Automatic annotation (TrEMBL):
One of its GO terms (molecular function) is RNA binding. Keywords: Kinase, Transcription, Transcription regulation, Transferase. Residues 170-231 form the ANTAR domain. SMART domains: ANTAR (SM01012), GAF (SM00065). InterPro entries: ANTAR, CheY-like_superfamily, GAF, GAF-like_dom_sf, GAF_ANTAR, WH-like_DNA-bd_sf. The keyword Disulfide bond does not apply. This is Transcriptional regulator. It holds the Pfam family GAF_2. Transmembrane segments: none annotated.
Length: 239
């Protein structure tokens, strides 16, 4: 019964993600759905997602917590780490014991351990020969993901990749760059809005994002539009 229940949950997660694959879908909301479903269904304490921008630089696009976002930002600043290696090689990178096996990346190792993460599983977002980012799963326990969870994580990453590299974008690379740039620009405004809500509502950054996303969905607005209205003080979102 437990197996059936989990199978249904995985199926529901794919349906939820697939629901975003429509014209003019909200890229940022898709990526946040991806990391949230990864944590909900897989043996991970937190998840984050990196995307490459048109200039070839990796950017943090979604995370389930400020802790995992901090670890990924520090990796990007250092230019090294398992998640960065995953993107550069297009191959899965698993560190089942960061304390013992993460010394190759001392800055990442220190940051991850300081946030309570003991393991990481990085999955490339890759289609054919093109890698556009990485989905990263952080664990609070030592040990690798099970083979089943690793396969589901890769499937989630594949769905997101296909959604970003649709057929029209594959035919015209400038469309891919435009779409990724819009997502990156949206992220900046969303981060600003989270700060505004955290201050005005006296909540944490994570809670601020939950309020922002809930408001956007309740009012059938893209996250970017709602965030823009928050930063321009056209609306006030409180708990």
């Amino acid at each position: 019964m437990a197996i059936l229940s989990r199978a249904r949950r995985v199926s529901a997660a794919f349906v939820k993600i697939a629901d975003t694959l429509v014209a003019d879908y909200d890229v940022v909301d898709l990526l946040h759905t991806l990391v949230e479903e990864s944590v909900a269904l897989l043996d991970a304490a937190a998840a984050g997602l990196l995307l490459v921008d048109p200039a070839g630089d990796l950017q943090v696009m979604a995370s389930t917590s400020e802790k995992s976002e901090l670890v990924e930002v520090l990796q990007l600043e250092a230019g090294v780490g398992p998640c960065v290696d995953c993107f550069r090689t297009g191959a899965v990178v698993t560190i089942d014991d960061i304390a013992s096996n993460g010394s190759k990346w001392p800055q990442f190792q220190s940051a991850a351990l300081s946030q309570g993460f003991m393991s990481v599983h990085a999955v490339p977002m890759r289609l054919r020969g093109q890698t556009i980012g990485a989905l990263n799963l952080f664990g609070q326990e030592v040990g690798p993901l099970s083979a089943e969870d690793a396969a589901i994580a890769q499937a989630f990453a594949d769905v997101a990749t296909i959604s970003l590299l649709q057929e029209r974008a594959l035919r015209e690379s400038t469309i891919v760059n435009d779409q990724l740039q819009r997502a990156l620009n949206s992220r900046i405004v969303i981060e600003q809005a989270k700060g505004v809500i955290a201050h005005t509502a006296n909540v944490t950054i994570d809670q601020a994002f939950a309020l922002l996303r809930s408001y956007a969905r309740a009012n059938n607005q893209p996250l970017y539009e709602t965030s823009k209205r928050v930063t321009e003080r056209l609306i006030t979102i409180t708990s």
